[in-house]
Design brief:
The chain is an alpha/beta fold and 352 residues long. Helices cover 45% and strands 16% of the residues. The protein has helices at 2-22, 38-54, 68-80, 92-104, 118-121, 123-126, 139-151, 165-180, 199-208, 219-231, 265-268, 271-279, 288-302, 309-315, and strands at residues 26-31, 58-63, 85-88, 109-111, 130-132, 157-161, 187-190, 212-216, 237-240, 258-261, 318-320, 323-325, 339-343, 348-350. The strands form three sheets. The chain has a seven-stranded mixed β-sheet. Helix 8 links the parallel strand 6 and strand 7. The radius of gyration is 25 Å and the shape is elongated.
């Protein structure tokens, strides 16, 4: 009788261990680990590893080589290792080659790195099971309009661009959004970039009566325009896009310059994520925190009872190191990351 009881206890212990192991999510990580972008892939891998350890999940890694061939090979590798969901990808060619294979295997993919708009815009046609935690490539353009139009209802504002595709797209979208709200800029122009001075542009803005201007251009031109406006005793509020983060200008950026851009991920990461990364001696640079958050999301969706992981990601809301994540019908995040910042002479600080 005693032996029978011991056998029962052993069986229960074995069953408990098996059940615990069966509940361990197997998460695939697809990231470039070679060539010129290996440092970015390593950042994503480091964040993913820490999150997997913290969430008691098993992480299976594959190198995408940032190419179509590498993406396909990584997909076959991960499918063969029975992963339930995949996190990663930085390169469009790699993820587009991998997604048909993941779709056939019914394995959803969460990408914190690929911003190409067609990736999700075509999901209804392609059937690709992709969810994007990275901002879309057109998110900056939309954020400029969404943030500035409500703020500039009572201002005499101007819109100028440097003639590049990047600058003109930002400026034109802002102009169109303003006109939909029956707001008309006092001045619109395309200026010549990379000059030693922008005195002519500053003079034209002042003659038009502009108190605020959005500049679709790079940091150097914006810094020079601010310098020249200040030299004319012209109090002009200048706003630029993400290009202001590029520290390539020999002219110092003026204090008070505004930027619509993304925060540094480490600045908005949760305290728990920062602590976990610090304990692992990982510096939260680049893709470390996005990789961490994406694996958190994958683990949470794997452990819900909302049907398949795809269904869980499609319908649920999950807390991550970068906030609460949920997705629209295309697989893009329903919330944006872009914010308004002010340069304090050293760094960009969020404008509340």
């Amino acid at each position: 009788m005693r032996c029978f009881a011991i056998l029962i206890l052993c069986s229960l212990a074995a069953f408990s261990q098996h059940a615990a192991h069966a509940q361990e999510p197997i998460i695939g990580l697809a990231a470039p680990m070679s060539d010129s972008v290996a440092v970015l892939g390593a950042q994503m891998r480091d964040g993913a590893r820490v999150a997997a350890h913290a969430g008691s999940a098993r992480l299976v890694e594959a190198d995408t080589q940032c190419s179509a061939e590498g993406g396909e090979a990584a997909a076959r590798n991960l499918i063969g290792q029975n992963v339930s969901v995949v996190v990663g990808f930085l390169c469009t060619d790699a993820i587009e080659a991998a997604l048909p294979l993941f779709a056939e295997a019914n394995i959803p993919v969460i990408t914190p790195g690929v911003r190409t708009v067609t990736l999700t815009d075509q999901r209804e046609r392609t059937g690709w099971p992709v969810f994007r935690t990275a901002p879309r490539a057109d998110a900056e353009r939309d954020a400029v309009a969404d943030i500035l139009v409500p703020r500039w209802r009572e201002e005499f504002f101007a819109i100028v661009d440097d003639g590049t595709i990047y600058g003109r797209e930002l400026a034109e979208n802002l102009r169109a959004a303003a006109e939909l709200q029956e707001l008309k800029p006092v001045f619109i122009d395309t200026f010549r970039p990379q000059l030693d001075n922008q005195i002519g542009l500053a003079a034209r803005l002042r003659r038009a009566g502009a108190s605020h201007v959005f500049v679709g251009g790079d940091r150097s031109d914006i810094a020079i325009l601010a310098r020249d406006a200040r030299g004319m005793d012209y109090d002009l509020v200048i706003v630029g896009g993400e290009a202001l983060r590029a520290e390539t200008s020999s002219t110092p950026l003026a204090e008070g310059t505004l930027m619509i851009g993304l925060p540094r991920w480490a600045d908005i990461a949760s305290d728990a994520a920062k602590q976990a990364l610090d304990n692992a001696e990982i510096i939260p640079d680049g893709y470390v925190v996005p990789g961490f958050a994406a694996v958190q999301l994958a683990i949470a969706a794997s452990r819900t009872e909302a049907g398949s992981i795809f269904e869980a990601l499609s319908s649920g809301r999950y807390e991550t190191a970068l906030g609460s994540f949920s997705f629209d019908t295309k697989g893009d995040l329903t919330q944006g990351f872009y914010r308004l910042f002010r340069f304090d002479g050293q760094t960009f600080q969020v404008v509340e």
